[in-house]
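Supplementary Note 3. Input sequence used for the single-chain structure prediction.
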Amino acid sequence: MQIPLQFRCTILEGRVRLLALRLDADVFDKALEKLWIHGGAVVDFAENVSLGQEGWRDLYIAQSGQKQQWIREVLAESSPQAVLDIGANTGEFSALAAESGTATVALERDMAAADRLFQMARQRNLPIQVIQADIARPSPAVGWENSESVALLPRLEGQFDLVLMLAVIHHLLLMEQIPLPAIIALCHRITRRHLVIEWVPVEDPMYQSLMRGRDSLYGTLSQTDLLNACDGRFRLMKWLALDNGRILLLFEKIAA
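The predicted structure, written as discrete structure tokens, is reproduced below.
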């Protein structure tokens, strides 16, 4: 969701207003998305923002803990040697993977977020390589005869035991308009073993905002469509419905 610059400086009250003054547009939009999803802010159809429900922070902490615990279990069960976190944002889940010594690559399109993630990894001495890139618009090969620097996707394909796509897939679907089967096909090329997807249902406030009246195209997408897209490429191993309605799914790759 893009909010006009002058609006960012007056949004909400107190701390959030000060936060808005310090963050660039993309980072602030991500912060507002989290507030909105978890009830800390209310956004109407005219994109006016007001304070959300009381107690939203306690609910957010509980849901965040639920998600973290599930990802920890996946990491413990799958014991990956290399992890790719697509759309890493703050690096919260990249850090979970790296804390056990797993070589982790964090892919984040926003330059400011990627820089903060890099600083966090360095301060905590975590084995996280941060790449500032957009998976939907990957860096091409460059240089003489395109041979001096390899394109991003060939460097990623087949290099990871576990790929994380947390709160990413709805952005690829709705903002980049990439078909679901194409997203799954790319994941199949990148991972060697496992894939985690956070599925955001149509009813989710962020999904509704990004859909922008394109109900005929995206208004009926469901978890069943995701499973159909995975047919022949991945098998579902386990899943968890979060309290906010989103669904975490662990898939195992089916060899081609």
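The longest helix spans residues 56-78. Residues 38 and 59 are 7 Å apart (CA to CA).
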